[in-house]
């Protein structure tokens, strides 16, 4: 994976975390940690970044329901560009950003199927650990197949 792609992936994870905090009202508890993260650009630049995020928090909270998603999308795009540029200038800050992000399990524990079928006389049980796709005809049991509409 190239370093530019690594920067974009990490920046995207950072944006997702920050926006989630903004939406759920937890930005103020994260603000001080993010301010420390931005310290490499200097106090004035960090203050501008924090002010931009504070304004985004207010804009999201006050946006009408029909416009909230667009406000969020514009903010995410702007923050992604800025965060990626910051990580590009200061690649050693990547580990510090990772520490701000929630822990993600690297390896998913295997799922063990469990099923309990009771009172199922003359019925069918489908068990799957992934998606089930019946194709264009669907999945039918005990009934004639659907006719394709013409």
Structure description:
The chain has five helices and no strands. It is mainly α and 150 residues long.
Produce the secondary structure layout.
Elements: H1 3-24, H2 27-37, H3 43-62, H4 65-89, H5 94-100
Helix pairs in contact: 1-4, 2-3, 3-4
How many helical stretches? 5
Unreliable segments (pLDDT under 50, ≥5 consecutive)?
104-109
Please tally the β strands and state the result.
Answer: 0
Strand content: under 5%
Spatial shape: extended
* Biggest sheet descriptor: none
Mean pLDDT: 77
* End-to-end separation: 48 Å
Task: Summarize this entry quickly.
The chain has 150 residues and is an all-alpha fold.
Descriptive terms for the model:
mainly alpha; 57% helix
């Amino acid at each position: 994976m190239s370093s530019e792609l690594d920067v974009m992936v990490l920046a995207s994870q950072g944006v997702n975390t920050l926006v989630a905090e903004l939406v759920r009202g937890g930005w103020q508890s994260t603000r001080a940690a993010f301010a420390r993260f931005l310290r490499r650009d200097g106090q004035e630049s960090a203050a501008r970044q924090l002010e931009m995020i504070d304004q985004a928090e207010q804009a999201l909270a006050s946006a009408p329901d029909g416009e909230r998603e667009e406000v969020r999308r514009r903010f995410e795009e702007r923050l992604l560009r800025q965060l990626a540029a910051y990580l590009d200038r200061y690649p050693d800050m990547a580990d510090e950003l990772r520490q701000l992000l929630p822990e993600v399990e690297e390896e998913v524990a295997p799922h063990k199927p469990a099923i309990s079928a009771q009172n199922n006389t003359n019925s069918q049980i489908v068990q799957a650990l992934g998606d089930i796709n019946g194709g264009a005809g669907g999945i039918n049991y005990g009934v004639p197949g659907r006719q394709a509409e013409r």
